[in-house]
Amino acid sequence: MNILTDPLPESVWIGDVEYPIDTDFRTSIKVAALFEDPSLEEWEKTAQTLELYFGGIPSDVETAVEAALAFFECDREVHGEGSKKAVLSFEYDAPYIFAAFFEQYHIDLTEVAYMHWWKFKALFDSLNANTKIMEIVSYRATDTKGMSKEEKRQIDKLKKMYRLPSPHDRMSDEDKAYQDALDEALMNGGESLSIWIIIQKGGHYGGWKHSH
């Protein structure tokens, strides 16, 4: 599809049924945040994505997921796996993204009542390299292999300054304690693993009771 000549999509086909889809850029940013959320299982991310886009879960879930992801990717094919390391978070980097749109396009995103996701994404992908967000993305993505010691030191300093929180950093205190207990149980085996299994089944062991 050509964004200059074709009308932007307001619906998608799921099997033989045409479903309206929420096209506002804020909805797709919420979808991106779901993908980043370490506290959610994959099925929860899928269900919440469909709820956000369609207001419910279509009966043909597999086709609905494909349609939702195609919309999220602006109907572009994603070639290869790309970088496995995240270099951008629409949630964590929101202030920098807001500032870049205001600086380059004079658009105050907080005052925009509606903007189609594909328009937003086209504008975002065209941000100048000298905007702060693009500089930060560049720092995070830079491979320091082959650099001089001083160059590497400078880039590593910037990477540390602008690093994205790890999945563990983003967890709630309860989820961190849960994950740490699981990690310890898997490392130590024996009694620790048995304790963790008891907790998973809703039992008590000392002061522990898993409430998920």
Task: Note down, in words, how this protein is organized.
InterPro entries: Phage_A500_Gp15. Pfam families: Phage_Gp15. It comes from Pseudoramibacter porci. This is Bacteriophage Gp15 protein. This protein has 212 residues and is mostly helical. It is 53% helix and 6% strand. The protein contains 10 helices and 4 strands. Strands 1-2 form a two-stranded antiparallel sheet. Strand 1 and strand 2 form a beta hairpin. The termini are far apart.
Strand content: 5-15%
Write down how many β-strands occur, each being a DSSP E stretch of 2 or more residues: 4
Strand order of the largest sheet: 1-2
Shape: globular
In sequence order, what are the helices and strands, one letter per element? EEHHHHHHHHHHEE
| Helix coverage percent | 40-55%
Q: How many structurally independent domains?
A: 3
Q: pLDDT under 50 segments (min length 5)?
A: 204-212
> Which structural category fits the helices and strands?
mainly alpha
Whole-number radius of gyration? 21 Å
Organism: Pseudoramibacter porci
Protein name: Bacteriophage Gp15 protein
